[in-house]
Structure formats: C-alpha cells, structure tokens
Description:
By secondary structure, the protein is an alpha/beta fold. It has 3 domains: about 10-120, Orthogonal Bundle (Helix Hairpins), CATH 1.10.287; about 125-275, Histidine kinase-like ATPase, C-terminal domain (Heat Shock Protein 90, 2-Layer Sandwich); about 295-410, Rossmann fold (3-Layer(aba) Sandwich), CATH 3.40.50.2300. Helices cover about 50% and strands about 15% of the residues. Strands 2-4-5-7-6 form a 5-stranded mixed beta sheet, covered by helices on one side. Strands 9-8-10-11-12 form a 5-stranded parallel beta sheet, with helices on both faces. α9 links the parallel β10 (about 340-345) and β11. α1 (about 10-80) runs antiparallel to α2 and α4 (about 165-180) runs antiparallel to α6 (about 240-250). It is an enzyme of class 2 (transferase). It comes from Gemmata palustris. Its EC number is 2.7.13.3.
Amino acid sequence: MIQVTDSTETAVYRQQAAAMNEVLLVSAARQHELTGAAEALGAGYQSAVRARDHFLAVLSHELRNPLAALSNGVQLLKLAGTDPGAVARAGDMMARQLNQMVRLVGDLLDVSRIATGKLELRRERVDLASVVRESAEASRPLIERQGHELTCALPPEPLILDADPTRLAQVFLNLLNNAAKYSERGGHIRLSAERDGAGVVVRVRDTGIGISAVHLPHIFDVFVQVDTVWHRAQGGLGIGLSLVKEFVELHGGRVEAHSDGPGTGCEFVVRLPLAEPAAAEPAPAVAPSPRGPGRRVLVVDDNRDAAESLAEMLELMGHEVRTAGDGAAGVSAAAEFRPELVLMDLGMPGVNGYEAARRIRAEPWGAAPLLAALTGWGAEDDRRRTHEAGFDRHLVKPVAPDVLTKLIAELPRP
C-alpha cells in the first residue's frame, strides 16, 4: 500500500496553490474595480461629448446670427441705390454685427489663452472713469434696443489703476451686456464706482430675471449657462462671466455675484486695487487726424476682397496705396513702389508672409519700410515668429481704422 505523506514538496505545492487563489481573487476584485472605472470613464466621456456638441451647436447659432444680419446688410446696400438714409442705416447695422462677431471670436481666443497660460496684460496707468465710459458707450446700442435705462455714478476724483485698459473695458462691457440681455424690456441698469481704502469698488446692478441659489455658485464657471427659456432666447456662449472673473483676478482683484433669486435682479461687485501714487500724471496723448499727410502704403493679401477694401479705406484717408496678391508679388511691388508701410498677410500660397518679409528686409533700401503683419493669428508664438521674420508690428484682423491711423502717424517724416 502506498502512503501519501505531507512532504515538504507537497506543502510547497499547497502554498503555491493558495497564493495563486489569492492572486485570482485579487485579480477578480481588481477587474471589477477597473470595469467600474471604465464605466465611469465612459459615462464621463459621453458627458464630455454631449457638452462639446451642445457648445458647438450654440457657437454655430451665435455666429450665424451676425452673419445673417451682415448678409442682409449687403443686399440692403444693393437695393438702397442712392438713398443715403437706407445706406447709412445698413452700414450702422453691419458695423454693430461685425463688432459682435469680433467680440465673440476674441472671447473664444481669450478662453484659449487663459487655459494655456498665455494671456498677458499690457498694463498702464489709466483712470477708471475713462474705462467705464468706454464700456458704457460700447454697450449703449444693446441697452437702447432693449429699452433699458442706464445710469452711471462715478466719483469726481480720478481713480488711477495700474491696468490693461482693453481687458478692463471687457470686464465692464460684459457685465453691462449681461445685465441688458437678462432684463425684461424697460429695465434699469445702474453702474457705480467708489473708492474703498486702497482700492475701488464697481457695482453693476440690474432689475432683471435674477439668479437662483442653485446656479449662483457656478455663475463664473466657463461655458456655464443658466438653462432657462429666457437664456436660450437671448443667446450667448457662457464665457463672458468666466472672462470677467479671470481678468479681474489677473488685475489682483475679485468679483462677486449677488441675487435674492429669480425675478429679483442681480448685482455684480468688482473690487480692484488702486495704482501707487505717481509724481505727476502724463498728459493724455492727442489722437492723430485721420487725414494726415499722404503716405505710400503697400497691402499684400491673397484675399482679394480684404486687400482691395483695405486699400480703398486707406485711399479715402488720403494715402497712396498699391496691392499685391501673394508674397512674391509683394516683394516685387515693394522694390518698385518703395512703400513707407507694408501691411502683409502671413498665410499666402507660394511665398508666405514670413519669407516675403525676410526678402524685403534683405533689399538695399535707402529708408526701409515699416513692416506690419496683418493676420488672423494672434497668439504669443505667432507674434514671436513675425518678429523673428523682420516685422515691426503684429496686427490682428480685423484691424480698426484708428489703429491704422496711429500706426501711420508713427512713420518717420519723409
């Protein structure tokens, strides 16, 4: 008879079997955890996809509205003939809608710059009152169309900030437009400012639809929208208030939102630090006249409509203008025309704007022209590349007439 004994070898086998069973149990538990995590990730992914699709749908809607108005304006100009009133009304409407599109695209780019840490403030000493007045003037068309009343209460003393006036104006413009959009027709909007110790407090109060206690803590989150029929009717991407918060905090301040609930209106409170006292405030610069001495300007852009419309505007301002449709033609035109200013697009077929700028810089000029990149690309990396290619300025499309006027005023006298 064979007797089975619990030898050392058998004991080792049993230990290995027990260890294997434990590994299998742990693996099964881990697999269960991974399955749950995968399901959670799947649910999160689906939620992100739905949020993306919703945002793209809203973005499409917001872009199509001004595009439709601009298309209508073009037809109105064709039908108006010699009626100066109709032409003026169509032109004013198209300017408003174009500004709306510029603000929309600018807000989207600002969100991207903030997310990547590439947003930089261009600080200067600025009087709060001038920034507030600029914002109020920019928001006035929307406020008047909605039938609202706007009152501004500013202290008589100057409140000097160390701030980026463009970003700060966006803060108050977004708050005023927000108040106008979410107040029933005939509402009242009040903007007030006062000194508070070493800082200033700006309040924007409206008599609008208000914010519920559920939504109030999230009102400054990016892409957050209060989901109401009223909100959907008014439109918006849900990024305006998030930019307000980011811009205020970049200036060393903070912003708060207050509301007692639906139907009670809202109050937004912006707190900003005052600038350190200066020995003397510089005198404000005098804006150059749009019709100064005529200068020679070369416009290089493969978009024919963009080039010819810009050239016509510059000619109406009293300047001598040539156009070129690509980089190679721009280099040839520069050698022949000898411009004092070159406004050049970057993304052109064949010889692009960067290479054209390098070739123009290589020419033996008596007095080299001022080279300005005129492009839709406006990130810091884009500005660095244009500087390395030899450009003196980097202008982002669409460029405002006053920007061109100031740029031309910088040209040296012949």
